[in-house]
Amino acid sequence: MAVAPATQAPALFGLNSGRIKRMSDLIMAVLLITIIAMLIVPLPSWLLDTLLIVNIAVSITILMVSLYNNDPLEMSVFPSLLLVMTLYRLSLNVAATKLILGHGHAGAIIEAFGQFVVGGSYIVGIIAFLILIVVQFVVITNGAGRVAEVAARFTLDAMPGKQMAIDADLHAGALTEEQAKHRRRAIAREADFFGSMDGASKFVRGDAVAAILITVINIIGGFALGMARGEDITLALQKYTLLTIGEGLVSQIPALLISTSTGIIVTRGASETPLGQEFAAQILMNPRPLNIVAGTLLVIALLPGFPKLQLILIAAALVFAAHRMTKKEKEGEIEAQRSVQLQEAIDSAPKSDSTPEQVMGLLSVERIEVELGSNLVAIADPEQGGDLMEKVGNVRKAIALELGVILPTVRIRDNLQLRVNNYQIKIKGAVVASHNLMVNSLLALDSGLAFQRLDGVETIEPAHGTPALWIDRAMKERAEVAGYITIDPSSVLVTHLTEVIRSHCSEMLTRQETQKLIENVKQSNEAVVNELIPAQLSLGEVQRILQNLLHERVGIRDLNTILETLADFAPRTKDLDQLSEFVRAALSRQLCKQYQDDDGTLRVITLAPSVEQQLREGVQPTANGNMLAIEPQFAQGLMRSLNQQVESAVQQGYNPVLLCSGQIRLPLKRLIERSQPALAIMAYTEIVPKVEVEAVGNVEVELSLV
């Protein structure tokens, strides 16, 4: 849920907004002390009139603000404001009671409500006051309290699922760390707000009960005092009843306005438009109901005894509104048809394709490309509410921070040859991944805490291959409460794209981009660049080393350290694989941080000494670098045992790393990367001091079977 950013308060009475903020705490403290003092100190009638007018004005202001409020959290202060206003009204009730019982009058405002509003009849006043109390207490307050209670319960139940959804978006690169923190704060504020509203609605209910008691006390007490002063019984009853009813009305009408504001805030979800615009857009969106209502009113006008003029005028107004809506819809259809015809004319216009520039354009190959089936175009079209383009932009930022590579622009286009719900990801023109999406559904993933089976279409989450379900969007809250993570279709595609980019990032690092990265380092560390390139290594050789690192998902963002290490070891050897291993050792702190679990522990799978000895003896140099020359039976046993250990560690909730000696690390990676492409392999020399290492598996091979 989007939270409106805090805006700077405007200047008030010539005061600077910053000064108002600094004085706000002092003003609030003085205000509360003044309200409490009103319960004790008698007030003159003119001051009571002023404070009653302030009460009415503030109540109307709160109602208007709630009408134009787009998000409940924009008024997160409302529960506290409700408490302050309730205490303020009760202090006015006490002050008015003192004047009524002590002096027989309570100012012009209360007398005006007692005489003009109820026509001077205390019986009418009592009935109007009781109806007002019933409306506020039974209808609005009870309804708002129930809505706040349910909203608080469901908000708290949905918090774990929302938090996990934020973690999923953050992991997919759809969110930055700052955006994720902002959304987590918004979820916490939302839970606090609805929980506070659940309790704050009790203030209004108690205020209504207190108003009834104060009214009864004032009537009985006033009548008794009037009799004690020798006043006429009838005149005393009428006088004190009118004053009491006037005081009750002038207090409860603002209370009713604030109760209405409470109901509006808790019954509205997050929206981008004020309440009035939503009414107009949702209720008056179809002219047919207006015509039906107009026809019904005209039929009623034909019946005897009904006011024909009013019925006919209202029916005419509804017919006019329906006619305007129909005319606007037709104009929109005509405009859309013209746009389609214009686009068709542009597409059908003859184009010359014989110029050299246009022919050369056919030879270009996009390095990263996403093709969408016809049903998936909507998720990439901002005019239809699609956010795919924005999320892909966030992926490029996340990859830059994680791997230190500036990705080329990801081209997104439609492909009518694909199935309507299918998409495919291309790297350098070749399809490397594809999947199906259900645009009007959500992907539900078991977070490991799911306790309920959902109805949906079974599928596989494309990025990690885990089982999932496509569920209806209306089941989102239910799924999150049941322990599932819900992901919208565009986020599913973006997560898949992110994993594909991580796996093929080394292929997309060109010499040109390598040169740009080095030029960026040269601005701050010119000496190391001049020493290394081209005296020790060529640009292409540096590119190859960076590609080796990216191939194993090692970030090259710390290019200073990488170039410094290459400058140190390039005079000793020109073997690019060995230089890559030296760079990995220099980045050991980064590697450990990358593979540590949330608790800071590095979970590893080790090799039995006999297995490691066998592998060390099998290392052979080849034209393509060091490889393992081992018996097929031994290789099969090794892979079988390794797969078992990895599967066991994953079932325990770990993401393990295979730990071995530096001599066999790279050859072993080349051996197992086809069956375990995501398994990271680290050398003992890459473990930095003070990192806690825990072995969660040990690979053994029965040599007797070899």
Strands, helices and their partners?
Blueprint: H1 17-38, H2 45-67, H3 78-103, H4 108-117, H5 122-172, H6 177-228, H7 233-267, H8 275-283, H9 287-301, H10 308-348, H11 356-361, E1 368-372, H12 388-403, E2 411-414, E3 422-427, E4 430-436, E5 441-446, E6 457-460, E7 467-472, H13 476-481, E8 484-487, H14 489-504, H15 511-522, H16 526-532, H17 539-551, H18 559-569, H19 576-586, H20 588-595, E9 601-607, H21 609-617, E10 619-622, E11 625-628, H22 632-651, E12 657-660, H23 662-672, E13 680-683, E14 692-699
Parallel strand pairs: 1-2, 9-12, 9-14, 12-13
Antiparallel strand pairs: 1-3, 3-4, 5-7, 5-8, 6-7, 10-11
Overview of the structural elements:
The protein has helices at 17-38, 45-67, 78-103, 108-117, 122-172, 177-228, 233-267, 275-283, 287-301, 308-348, 356-361, 388-403, 476-481, 489-504, 511-522, 526-532, 539-551, 559-569, 576-586, 588-595, 609-617, 632-651, 662-672, and strands spanning 368-372, 411-414, 422-427, 430-436, 441-446, 457-460, 467-472, 484-487, 601-607, 619-622, 625-628, 657-660, 680-683, 692-699. The protein is α/β, with parallel strands linked by helices and 706 residues long. Strands 2-1-3-4 form a 4-stranded mixed β-sheet, with helices on one face. β1 (368-372), α12 (388-403) and β2 (411-414) form a beta-alpha-beta unit. It is elongated. The two termini are 60 Å apart. Mean pLDDT is 78; it is low at 1-17.
